[in-house]
Amino acid sequence: MTTARAHTNIALLKYWGKKNTELILPYNDSISLTLDHFYTDTTVDFVSSLTDDEILVDDQPLTGSGLKRAKRVLNLIREQSGIQENASVHSTNHVPTTAGLASSASAFAALAAAGSKAAGLDLSDKELSILARHGSGSASRSIFGGFVQWHAGHDSQSSHAQSIQSAVDWDINLITALVDTKKKKVSSTMGMQAVVKTSPFFPAWVKSAQADVEPMKTAILNKNLANLGTIAENNAMRMHATTFGAVPNFTYFQPQTLAILDAVRNIRKLGVECYSTVDAGPNVKIICASSNNELIMDKLATIINRNQLLVCKPGPGIKYL
């Protein structure tokens, strides 16, 4: 029996669209920052008396696509380890699920780590990243702490994440504005599929996203918050633009999302370095230095309740509890 903890990550350069849906291979590289505030704890035990995998998330049986993806990861673990037993999986999410807060990233990273260790495997971080990717693409990045790059690759073994800077020794954090933590009307998977198939903006998105990779890595290594934030904000807005071009068109933005995005631009005009990014959901993350947290939250409190603003710092990679 093994318990692992994995933290969520926020994509500074987004993963949006699969060129291979079975292997979960993305069209472009992505870069993320692992966060300390949101995480998943998962315990796995392989039990001979079980007639099927038993997977509970927050004490509720996992169903639907989540169950299918979890079984895919467990089957890969059984294949690699040679064991035959079914798994008892108990997972606790310290992050709202399916709300655009990367709950699947922490969930499948924790499952890959706990499951492989429980099966007697001693996988490298690269191997864990490949395994976690089969459950959720963004989970490949949550194996690592700090700043992480997911290489798109061309097959299962070449598509994996890699650390850029695991120990973040400079002043950067995110203020997460929890606009709405309810389940999204359009899942990330469904949204990606619709955009890839129908949005005329998608090819331009892929080209611009890949072009962002080296400038973003340079900004990280130079500890340049302004360049990092500018690239991340532009990248996020271009990703969301693809949803307006889909057929039928859709958006993850809510009125409060737009108000916060506008407020961040206005705060920046005051000379305060702060930048927005939004994943596939309505919740906004504001990239800034911790010295500006109070000023920014005071400004945002006119739009959203103060208790819906959470400060996140760079977080660690996989831990075994």
From TrEMBL:
Enzyme Commission numbers on file: 4.1.1.33
Protein family (similarity comment): Belongs to the diphosphomevalonate decarboxylase family.
UniProt keyword Membrane present: no
UniProt-listed InterPro entries: GHMP_kinase_C_sf, Mev_decarb, Mev_diP_decarb, MVD-like_N, Mvd1_C, Ribosomal_Su5_D2-typ_SF, Ribsml_uS5_D2-typ_fold_subgr
Domain called Mvd1 C-terminal: residue spans: 177-306
Keyword Magnesium listed: no
Record's keyword terms, sorted: ATP-binding, Lipid biosynthesis, Lipid metabolism, Lyase, Nucleotide-binding
SUPFAM superfamilies according to UniProt: GHMP Kinase, C-terminal domain, Ribosomal protein S5 domain 2-like
Protein name, entry field: diphosphomevalonate decarboxylase
Domain Diphosphomevalonate decarboxylase-like N-terminal stretches: 6-161
